[in-house]
Amino acid sequence: MPQLPPSVPLSWYLALSLILFVLGIAGFLFRRNIITVFMSIELMLNAVNLSFITFSYKLKQVDGHIFSFFVMVVAAAEAAVGLAIILTVFKNRQTLEIDELSSLKN
Amino acid sequence: MQLWLIPLLPLAGFAVNGLLGRRLSKTAINAVAAGSVVLSFVWVLKTLSTLGVFGGGNPLEQAYVEHYFTWIQSGTLNIGVDFAIDRLTAVMLMIVTGVGFLIHVYAIGYMAHEGGYYRFFAYLNLFMFFMLTLVLGANFLLLFVGWEGVGLCSYLLIGFYFSEKFATDAGNKAFIVNRIGDFGFSLAVFLIAMHFGSLDFATVFGKVQSMPVESSAGWMTAIALLLFVGATGKSAQIPLYVWLPDAMAGPTPVSALIHAATMVTAGVYMVTRSSAIFLHAHGALEVVAIIGLATAFFAATMGLAQTDIKKVYAYSTVSQLGYMFLGLGTGAFSAGIFHVMTHAFFKALLFLGAGSVIHAMSGEQDLRKMGGLRKYTPITFWTLLCASVAIAGVPPFSGYHSKDAILASAYEYAPWMYWVGVFTAGMTAFYVFRAFFLAFFGEPRWKAAGHGHDDHGHSHGAPHESPPSMWIPLAVLAVLSLVGGYINIPKWLEPMFKLAPEESGIPWTAMVSVAAGVIGIALAAWFYLIAPAIPEGLARTFSTPYRWIYNKYFVDEFYDSLVVNPTVDGSRSLLWRVVDAGGIDGIVNGAGKTARNVGGILKRMQSGSIRSYAAWVVLGSIVVIVAITMAGGAR
Amino acid sequence: MDALLFMIFAAIAVVCGINLVVQTHPISSALSLVGVMGALAALYLLLGGEFIAAAQLVVYAGAIMVLFVFVIMLLNAGTEHKGHRTWAKYAGVPLLLVFLGIIANLIANRLPASENVVFGQFTKGSPLEIGRALFTTYLLPFEVTSVLILIAILGAIVLARKEID
Predict the structure, then answer these.
(1) Domain covering C1-79, topology
(2) What percent of chain C has pLDDT over 90?
(3) pLDDT, tens digit, 9 for 90 and up, residues B411-428
(4) CB distance C75–A96 less than 8 Å?
(5) Residue A69 is part of a domain; what is its CATH number?
(6) CA of C139 to nearest chain A CA: how many angstroms apart?
(7) Confidence (pLDDT) at B586
(8) Helices H, strands E: what count in chain B?
(9) Do C43 and A5 touch (CB under 8 A)?
């Protein structure tokens, strides 16, 4: 087992946040099910939360935590409304394929 | 003294007749139109008598100026609205208002059956306003205002019968040709403002007096020549005379007032007013004399063969205007103005008489179809006889005095000019009496041809005399044509233009010119009274010169091919197709097309696929991050 | 010890994240997301954010993800089929790599690597501190979010109800 440093540098946390964020974008771009796309967005939000907390640690202030708190609130609201929209879309179109929801074309 | 009343009374007449004329009765229109002019005339008399003109002594040694308000104040240039009367203005005022009034009265009778009655008198009054502004103006700008205004009224009145294409064409031609002259005039005004710093007559001419005389080309000569270009346009000299014969398409009172007595003399007046400038630029003065003489000669030759009675008198007008400029060019400014006055009398009378003849002939204007009219229209016959002898220079009538003054001055200047002038005088007498004899003597050629419909819309039966509203002005003008020569204008204008010392007796130059006139009359009598076959024989023998004279030396056709057609074609192919339709429309339409195309390209972005939108979002965020990083991070 | 804990939970998070993107059935993705959130809660704890860690577990993993699972079950979403490709698929990979590269660059250059995270060093994440900040400095946003939640509730109800005939 490689020798681990006694404590973790801050940049590792940010690197993790970056990886999770990129994963979220990948899911957002490449998945076809609309709910999965939505979940990728939630993944992105989480990654950003981690980033906020990390910087809050760095700056020795509580504001990052507050911001993260608000992000969570907004994510909750957004999830509720977004899922309601998906329900409506499903009722009208009977499909969850993102490519078929293209009536805004041209 | 309220000088402003003089032009503004006719302007009020124009306003009333123009705005309300449709609803006024003919009597009311007559009263307003003629009344405004006669009131203006009365006011002129009152003003002049207040200034002491009709008494003894030496009135109006200095100009009397009235300043109303400042029109342009720009830097050092200050142009006010000023009216001024001096001796020259007094002469012009009397002519314009007096003869103008007579012609208004005549027009009441002549236009009695015409449509657009109120419009005619409105335009006529408007013309009087502009002409009086021209004459009364105390600076070049006011003169120019009047200058342009009379050009406008000329256009409106020539094209009065606007449903006839040849009338509207003639109006266009008059205006456009005048415009060319006005361009020269404008350049002259700019140069004057540049060199003298003012446009006021008193200031400019005062400064000119203190300058040396220019013997060769310089800017003073340029100013004088450009002023003269304007005069050639307005006063129908070579090369811009071509509009005047065509202007006969207008009603006869218009021909009499505008194209005989007043507007065309505006050029003569302007040159006389600027005599100080011309006297300091002898080269320009020589040009004036030569062009005047050439015009007099050529126009007289063209008048020899015309068959329309109004065209004969039109060319006669051009020729007489040439005489006036000859007088000015040889230094006899007062003789030129003297001839303006006598010409106003007899030429207006000639035109009005022609109108009376045309009226009697129910609209026929061709001399070949007239004849023997003296039995039917005696008053017209006698008055036209008075005018014809006056213009032929028969003493002691008015034309003799003024024409002789000019010829004497020409002899002093250059004897060859005098001889050409004498020959022209002979031709003048010839063609005037040719018209006279053809119309009033001989067989009634119209009896065989039958009657046509006149432009009044109904035929008259046998020719009859004109109504009193028409023959009374004829009579008044006839008296003036006979005795007007005794109004000694050169003496009156002496403080402004020095006269040569009077010789005793009648100079031999006068006797020669009178002889030329008498020979002309005799020739005309022989050709057209005694042996009518001779003119036809001569025309056949000298067919080529005759053809050239008859077709006015093809000058109009020459101008067409030289100027008009290239301009029209150039405009059509270059300016219209290339610049306007291609360039300007291309830019405007092109902007629209470009917007459409760009929109078409951007349209592809709206694919409706959410995933491509997502990709755009990522791309956009990358761009923003890079941009902020480049800019040094968000602070 | 801190480093070990970090590595474990970071590994869990990454693996669950990859799982989320790779799985075909939505319910698997949902459960992976729950895993990610749990791991992240532990990481928040390491960073001294006690309140946020608890909130993450209670609100995010406990409520929002449950909602997601409900909806997936409700809609009976099945596995995905292979679909036609849009240009996003082809442009997506390069874009992602570019993004990754840029941010990694930023992190490497802009941040001092000397700062280390020691558990227990950050004390301002306690509920006391957060409460104090929320009710003084951030009072207005706090109240506004309550309105926001109200609007979201109303919106969700309106959108998702059955048509009343």
Answers:
(1) Four Helix Bundle (Hemerythrin (Met), subunit A) (1.20.120)
(2) 46
(3) 888 888 888 999 999 999
(4) yes
(5) 1.10.287.3510
(6) 11
(7) 82
(8) 28, 2
(9) no
